[in-house]
């Protein structure tokens, strides 16, 4: 990554990526144990344009750790009841207890992005959100929560490539919603919404960190590295695990008792 945040056009090779990812995932396991021991409360929220790579980054971040510690939250559209609540209420309900890292796959910043651009909230509601959000985040941080806000920024050309790949690949078509295709045509509306959001909510107590994500592999590594550098942790020494001897008490042919049961047909 250059000083101005631009990313090299040379894409990272898979072999190099997997080697570096494993190193970072080992450190994430150490971080996990530290968070559990110290009863830390951590929020990591991912925002960015559609097809910026949020899902893949979250998967790389969480695939080797416990879902009991790294809890992913991806809230659906609010119910009729939730629409009458305070806007942040349903998100606050998901905040971490001691020993948890909650990862928001999109967050309360929906109001500053898709809701504002698509007209799901009024200009007054949008303005009010931008005014109140820094105050609410300060309350959370002052209360001991470690808040990490990440914005994945994908380029216009790369986003189009990824959208077309989703259209053509039946394994990825589920990722393409009518809202996604609508957002594709509103690139500059989303850019302006992003700029207003960053200007209003990039605070000393809860700063934004931007990641260029045209190269998905580099972006994932940069995100995980940033998280590890942001949360102070120590490697906890663990006792060597030894398997006990199996007891032969009550020994019997436990496979014979399964005869006659219906197993799944072995097609492979």
Automatic annotation (TrEMBL):
Keyword Kinase: yes
Signal peptide: none
Top-level taxon of origin: Bacteria
Molecular-function annotations in GO: polyphosphate kinase activity
EC category: transferase
Gene Ontology BP term (one): ATP biosynthetic process
Domain Polyphosphate kinase-2-related: 12-237
Matches recorded under Gene3D superfamilies: P-loop containing nucleotide triphosphate hydrolases (3.40.50.300)
EC number: 2.7.4.-
SUPFAM superfamilies reported for this sequence: P-loop containing nucleoside triphosphate hydrolases
UniProt entry keywords in alphabetical sequence: ATP synthesis, Kinase, Transferase
Catalytic activities: [phosphate](n) + ATP = [phosphate](n+1) + ADP
Pfam families linked: PPK2
Keyword Heme: no
Protein family membership: Belongs to the polyphosphate kinase 2 (PPK2) family. Class I subfamily.
Subunit structure: Homotetramer.
Function, in words: Uses inorganic polyphosphate (polyP) as a donor to convert GDP to GTP or ADP to ATP.
Designated name of the protein: ADP/GDP-polyphosphate phosphotransferase
Species whose genome carries this gene: Bradyrhizobium jicamae
């Amino acid at each position: 990554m250059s000083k101005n945040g631009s990313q090299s056009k040379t894409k990272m090779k898979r072999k190099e990526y997997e080697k570096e990812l494993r190193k970072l995932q080992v450190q994430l396991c150490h971080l996990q144990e530290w968070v559990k021991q110290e009863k830390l409360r951590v929020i990591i929220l991912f925002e960015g344009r559609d097809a910026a790579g949020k899902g893949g980054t979250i998967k790389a971040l969480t695939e080797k750790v416990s879902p009991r510690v790294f809890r992913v939250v991806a809230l659906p559209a609010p119910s009729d009841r939730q629409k009458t609540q305070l806007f942040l209420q349903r998100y606050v309900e998901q905040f971490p207890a001691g020993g948890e890292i909650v990862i928001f796959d999109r967050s309360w910043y929906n109001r500053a992005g898709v809701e504002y651009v698509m007209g799901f909230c009024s200009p007054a509601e949008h303005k009010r959100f931008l005014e109140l959000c820094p105050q609410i985040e300060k309350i959370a941080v002052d209360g001991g929560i470690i808040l990490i806000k990440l914005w994945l920024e994908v380029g216009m050309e790369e986003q189009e490539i990824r959208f077309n790949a989703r259209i053509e690949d039946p394994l990825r078509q589920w990722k393409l919603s009518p809202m996604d295709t609508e957002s594709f045509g509103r690139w500059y509306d989303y850019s302006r919404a992003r700029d207003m959001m960053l200007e209003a909510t990039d605070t000393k107590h809860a700063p934004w960190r931007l990641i260029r994500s045209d190269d998905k592999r580099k972006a994932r590594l940069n995100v995980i590295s940033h998280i590890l550098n942001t949360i102070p942790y120590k490697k906890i020494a663990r006792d060597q695990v030894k398997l006990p001897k199996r007891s032969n008490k009550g020994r019997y042919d436990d496979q014979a008792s399964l005869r006659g049961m219906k197993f799944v047909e072995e097609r492979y």
